[in-house]
Specification:
The complex is a heterodimer of chains A (about 230) and B (about 220). Chain A has about 230 residues and is mainly alpha-helical. Helices cover about 75% and strands about 0% of the residues of chain A. Chain A has helices at about 5-10, 10-40, 45-60, 65-80, 85-110, 115-125, 130-160, 170-180, 185-210, 220-225. Classes of the chains: A mainly alpha (about 230), B mainly alpha (about 220).
Chain lengths: ~230, ~220
């Protein structure tokens, strides 16, 4: 075992790691917005809005992330006629996939805020969207922060799958090095440790936030359940 | 859109799809059984163990659930040198068992303390208490969370294609490579995944109902 492959290839690995972080942060930020939109649509009183959105969310959550990545990388170009670069396909796939999960987290968050808050906001003259944005969502967001962190961990681990369409994120970078130097134990061990440190660190932050939350406001079941596994 | 659909490839390559479906069911099925067993053991033991042993179980859960499955698969396949099938089973079971352990632990934690006190007061040994009082009650509580985990096993089994297991996702690529009909193949495979998840949900609902009736009847 030659441990020196790690320091020797550190710049390359760091570059890959940087891309992993960027992919995770960018797709999380985007799916926070799309997730909020989908959550609101799923809570819509109109059945023709609520039902199709519900089907999309539930079906999306039963499809493996790899399939979603394939859909966007290999199949969208066929349908639209425009080729997409791997990194764009990866981002779109991660956002679409994560949107369905975030929509459920945010929906649980919105439902965890007492209905009277919305009533009070509406009766003080705010429109539905303003009441949502200024009154309900800020409170919901606070309740769902631990769940959002769990989704971020799943997303962070999920970025390793865009390896298959050739995006040189952390896992692919490590893999490329291994194909050259054949130090599988050292390299995959190192990759495992790095992912572990990041994801475990994040989960500690999530736990800390969970404990700090006011126990009296614990209405959302989402937070009381154990972290659902990273579905990929 | 200039693409002309040709759904007949699904029929001409039905053998590939069927093989893929069977491989997915096989890998996911074995991993569901293994990860449930390991997960239940780890989750239960973690709850009832004294301190130094407890941290061992905590380390197991935290390590295996915080390393992406693809990394675990590659480790078993390329570093340890297991076969692709064994590597996939091991990687999948280790990853998912950590999550199931957490589900089981929270299920046990939700059982009122009085149940444990009552079991002790009626003179049950530790194993008897776990076997007859704790696990039956915990099982009902964890069924909904477990069905999500089982669906995740099926979904994560798709990652096994990266180490060469010829399951559904792998066969999508195979059909694409042979016929350039990836779109049709991917649609069919996506539908199959949704159906598998649906079967798990129905099955677990049925389990839940049966368990509840069982408990009410005493």
């Amino acid at each position: 075992m030659d441990f020196s492959v790690i320091p020797r290839n550190l710049p390359y690995l760091l570059q890959g790691f940087g891309l992993t972080v960027v992919l995770a942060l960018a797709s999380m930020s985007a799916s926070l917005l799309t997730g909020t939109l989908f959550a609101m649509l799923r809570l819509s009183p109109k059945r023709w809005v609520r039902i199709p959105i519900g089907i999309f969310i539930d079906v999306m959550r039963t499809i493996p992330l790899i399939m979603v990545i394939f859909w966007f990388f290999f199949l969208m170009p066929i349908v639209t006629g425009h080729p997409v670069t791997p990194i764009v396909a990866a981002l779109i796939a991660l956002v679409v996939f994560n949107t369905s999960y975030m929509a459920e987290v945010i929906r649980a968050g919105i439902l965890s805020v007492s209905k009277t808050q919305m009533d009070a906001a509406r009766s003080s003259g705010l429109g539905y969207l303003r009441a949502m944005w200024h009154v309900v969502l800020p409170q919901a967001f606070r309740n769902m922060l631990p769940a959002i962190i769990n989704r971020f961990i799943a997303l962070f681990m999920g970025t390793s799958l865009v390896y298959i369409i050739g995006v040189t994120e952390f896992f692919r970078a490590a893999n490329n090095i291994n194909n050259r130097v054949f130090q599988s134990y050292v390299i995959y061990g190192f990759v495992a440790v790095v992912y572990f440190v990041c994801c475990y660190g994040l989960s500690l932050i999530g736990q800390h936030l969970l404990e700090r939350l006011d126990p009296s406001s614990r209405a959302s079941t989402e937070r009381l359940l154990p972290r659902p596994s990273s579905s990929a | 859109m200039k693409y002309e659909f040709d759904w007949s490839v699904l029929y001409t390559h039905r053998q590939l799809l069927l093989d893929g479906l069977l491989a997915t069911i096989e890998v996911a099925g074995i991993a569901i059984v293994l990860s449930s067993l390991i997960g239940t053991a780890v989750g239960t033991l973690r709850h009832f163990s004294p301190q130094p042993i407890k941290s061992l179980f905590i380390a197991y859960t935290e390590f295996f659930r915080n390393v992406p499955p693809i990394v675990q698969f590659f480790f078993w396949y390329f570093a340890v040198g297991l076969g692709s099938f064994d590597g996939a089973i091991l990687g999948l079971s280790a990853f998912q068992s950590a999550y199931i352990a957490e589900v089981v632990r929270s299920g046990i934690g939700a059982i009122p303390r009085t149940q444990i006190e009552a079991a002790r007061a009626s003179g049950l040994s530790n194993t008897q208490m776990i076997r007859y009082v704790i696990l039956p009650q915990a099982t009902i509580r964890v069924v909904p969370a477990l069905s999500i985990e089982f669906i995740n096993v099926i979904k994560n089994s798709s990652i096994a294609m990266t180490i060469g297991v010829m399951e559904l996702t792998f066969q999508t690529q195979e059909i694409e490579a042979r016929t350039f009909r990836g779109f049709e193949a991917a649609t069919a495979v996506t539908v199959l995944y949704v159906m598998l998840a649906f079967i798990v949900v129905i099955g677990m609902r049925y389990c839940e109902r049966t368990l509840r009736i069982d408990v009410r009847g005493g």
